[in-house]
Amino acid sequence: MIGQRKRLSSGLTVTSKVFVRSRNGGALKVVREHYLRNDIPCYSKACTKCQHILKADAQGNLPNFILSESPAKTKSGKRHYIVLDTNIILHAIDLLENNECFFDVIIPQTVLDEVKNRSYPIYQRVRGLVKSEDKRFVVFHNEYNEETYVNREKNESINDRNDRAIRKLVTWYDNHLNNENAAQKINIVFICNDADNRRKAISEKIDARSLTEYIEDLKNADDLRDLIPNETTNFATGENETSFPEYYNDSRIMAGVKNGTLYQGILNISPYNFLQGTVQTPAFKKPLLIIGTKHLNRAFNSDSVIVELLPKDKWKEPSSTIVEENAIGANDNAGDEDDDDISGSSGVISDKERVLLAQEAVKATSVAADDESRLQPTAKVVGISRRSWRYYVGQIAPTSVSAEDSGNASKNCFVILMDKVLPKIRIRTRKAKELLGQRIVVVVDSWSSNSRYPNGHYVRSLGEIESAEAETEALLLEHDVEYRPFSKNVLDCLPEEGANWTVPDIAGTSDPQLAKRKDLRDKLVCSIDPPNCVDIDDALHAKPLPNGNYEVGVHIADVTHFVKAGTALDQEGAARGTSVYLVDKRIDMLPMLLGTNLCSLKPYVDRFAFSVIWELDEDANIVNVNYMKSIIKSREAFSYERAQLRIDDPSQQDDLTKSMRILLKLSKKLKQKRLDAGALNLASPEVKVHMDSETSDPNEVEIKKLLETNSLVEEFMLFANISVARKIYDAYPQTAMLRRHAAPPSTNFENLNKMLSARKPGMAVSLESSRALADSLDRCVDANDPYFNTLLRIMSTRCMMAAEYFPSGSYGYPEFRHYGLAVDIYTHFTSPIRRYCDVVAHRQLAGAIGYENLDLSHRDKNKMDMIVRNINKRHRNAQFAGRASIEYYVGQVMRNNESEHEGYVIQCFNNGIVVLVPKFGVEGLIKLEMLGDVNSAEYNEDTYELTFVDLNKKKRTVAVFDKVKVDVKSVKDEVSGKRKAQLILK
After folding, report:
1. Which residue segment(s) compose the domain that 814 sits in?
2. What percentage of the chain carries pLDDT values higher than 90?
3. Which residue among 9, 238, 572, 581 has its CA within the 20 to 30 Å range from the CA of 906?
4. How far apart are alpha carbons 546 and 527 in whole angstroms?
5. Helices (H), 799-920
6. Where is the region Disordered (predicted)?
7. Long-range residue pairs from 797-803, CB within 8 A, at least 24 positions apart, any chain
8. H or E element: which one contains 213?
9. CA angle, corner 515, sides to 514 and 518, nearest 5?
């Protein structure tokens, strides 16, 4: 490789890299040119040079000089700017966002590019800091400045070259600002936690400091020490606490994955046994079992891990013993651990649980010789390819803080996280005593091989445990939901008229786009939604045609009229991915002005829409379909119940009611067609929490009731989604935004079928096709228990694969199939106010019908891959957050209302049972010690029966699918601080 520079007549400098490659015995010369400039400003208000040499743009604007001419001083009295290294941003982003420090910050382009490659979410947060007017962060494009750009030297690693580029930028800023004409000296502080890079910087006369050294030189250092990532904090206790196996190096992992001796997958920790996890890989039908903390090897739930298969004589059955993390090492000291074995035999695990675990180990050996089909392959974690670490919420363990602890000294203590499958986090803080009883946010920084627990640092407090504000914010953080207010840049994308915006007149318009819209304001359009819905994104109409067919229209809010691709508003919507619905609030994907006003298809006002209009025959077959951007005027906004009452009222004979009756009639035929094709009718224990209108306190829980109008809307939304999917796939066969639902592997239903065989002879779930599954579920009826079929559908839902978004080029057409809906192709088009997938589908449909050109981001497969990865994650997180909100408020309703209810046993273990209570949609674990005599219990794994002597000294047997009576009350978990349903078997 040969590097050279030359100056062009335009004033630009071009650096060329010449490569010589050999192909088929011949030489190929490759020249890559990189253009450099001499007019990139330093962005400092203290610099007169840059402000004088720069030219204004066509509008007369100069670059925005942000860095203060009089920056803050350190304790040592130096006014300073800060230059950050990559590791500081990646590990201390929450500290950078703190409003008590880090002002006048320079981020080299080299660093920003590294951050973007290593963590896109943190990159987005950095961009937010750059846009903040208070923090004064700037990005300096050192890679395009001729005075700061550096070529890579011979035999120099990319990392070393980047470090050198950053150091050169620091030196350039120092020389640039502190020349003989400078009014005052501004110190340039380079903050870097890489000891080697820092040593080189110091040798080059750069003021280079670690993060800890910099914080200690600030006047408010006492308030900031707790926020320093522990990679720069000494947590050593003087001796090794334990010894985890070291991870394999990168070359060994790459070779192992390539030759099939190592496997990669996502780790899922069992919610009932934190010592057991599974990793699903394509190479095995059954998931790989990871058993014990040594084999889990510091992996967190949801980490992407590299695993190595254990010998076949070590394969085992999944554990049938409940083991909870809070029972292991509950009395550990955060600062001075002993060397007890980390496998779980230390701590306060009960003698019974230890015996059961030992019995399972022995049993696995006998099973191996008796019935190998019951065994699962086992493996151990040998590497982490991607950590799932994020903000975690928990509380400081009271046992790790003593009354004698000084309030001024930093103290090691444990944080018990809300998620019970995660380990305790050790942090160092001076505020341990004052934070007791509060929900706090922590970040995990590291987990060394000689530490029993991961190390992290405190970020902030959310408030008192069980306060509605703290618990709501906690569940949003736990499920990685973005809930901060929309930035000014985003809000600036909204129409200037705000809420006064109205649909413009299309008569004689000179706007070519507006002229393409169809005026459908004469149609009898109405919306049917849940009560009090304000973000109305769909409406319908129907009318009979002279030929005996029907015209049916689905009209969807035209969000993309306001949300243009590539804008700050679009980027924010893409990042959030979806709106999140909690019991007491809604976290919007788009600003409220759009979602509840300008885009919402409210009645009696003109609105822009994207319409799909079919001609359907009497049997709901499609005769013709058209897609168009339109203007509509909804006649009425119905709730499901109000629409049902109007349809059912024979005295209502107006045209709008008749149109809804047509819709209902056709929707029933559409649904029957889906069911005939094998669509699944599954179930989930959905409940609704009623809030007091005056106090906003939860006061009642009821199971959601579904009316025919619910199905009416659902069927036509499905119908529209299918039609649009076909249209956009025809237009964009590689990048169409689609949604698929894979067929579940038979192993997913293996355990459920074993339960049915043991407890309900003659019943079984068939998996040959979705139709076979649907028919078999219909047959599984217990004449003595009407709820049993619903229970089985709930349990079957949990065995299904998750549906996912994907660009059409990622799979062959047969794999597009949506198993649950029994259709060959599907997308989401009908809710663009609350789902970003639908926004993309709208843009692609607009391109497909020639309304407007499609943005490049939706025609590029790599960019579409990035979009779908994010929205799949956001969609999943939103579902979990919604369920967690219901769980919290159900707990509040039950708080002072202990009562007896029917429940169903859905799982049995050696030392407990899990019971579902349909009334509240909650399930609770009842451990053996709450059932009766622990030592008398016997578990029959073939019949899923647990036999024990109950608290009344009577022998009793409970089994899977049994209907039982339970007392239900809400209790606060003293370990995690989380309120949960406590069930007591009657």
Report:
1. 488-737+808-885
2. 56
3. 581
4. 25
5. 836-848, 861-894
6. 325-346
7. 797/682, 797/683, 797/684, 799/744, 799/748, 799/749, 799/752, 800/682, 800/741, 800/744, 800/748, 801/741, 801/742, 801/743, 801/744, 801/748, 802/876, 803/739, 803/740, 803/741
8. helix 211-216
9. 90
Q: Are residues 215 and 101 in the same domain?
A: yes
pLDDT band (50, 70, 90) for residue 593: very high
Domains of the chain: total: 6
The region of weakest confidence among 39-48, 108-117, 415-424, 606-615 is 39-48
pTM of the model: 0.84
The CATH number of the domain holding residue 906 is 2.40.50.140
Judgement on whether residues 860 and 908 belong to the same structural domain of the protein = no
Q: Are residues 307 and 175 in the same domain?
A: no
Given this model, what pLDDT does residue 884 score?
A: 87
Q: Assess whether 211 and 323 both reside in one domain.
A: no
Instruction: Examine the fold and report which residue of 836, 853, 885 is the final residue of a domain before the chain moves on.
Output: 885
Contacting residues for 797 by C-beta, under 8 A, at least 6 apart:
682, 683, 684
Residue carrying structure tokens 């409406």: 539
In a domain, 534, yes or no: yes
Nearest Cα residue to 961 out of 701, 781, 750, 748: 781
In a domain, 472, yes or no: no
Which conformational region is residue 708 in: left (phi greater than 0), alpha (psi within -120 to 50 degrees), or beta? Answer: alpha
Contact yes or no for 862/740 (Cβ under 8 A): no
Do 530 and 416 belong to one domain?
A: no
Q: What is the mean pLDDT of the chain?
A: 86
Query: Which ranges of 11-155 does DSSP label H, i.e. alpha helix?
Result: 48-53, 86-91, 93-96, 109-118, 120-131
Which structure tokens are listed for 534?
């304000």
Q: Are 282 and 369 in contact (CB under 8 A)?
A: no
Whether the predicted pLDDT of 465 surpasses 70: yes
Q: How far apart are CA 180 and CA 639, in angstroms?
A: 74
Both tokens assigned to 82: 């800060």
Chain centre distance of CA 90: 19
Say if residue 281 is in the same domain as residue 357.
yes
331, 410: one domain: yes
User: Do residues 842 and 822 both lie within one domain?
Assistant: yes
Residue 60 lies in a domain: no
Q: b/e for 785-808, b at 16 or more Cβ within 10 A? A: eeebbbbbbbbbeebbeebbbbbb
234 lies in a domain?
no
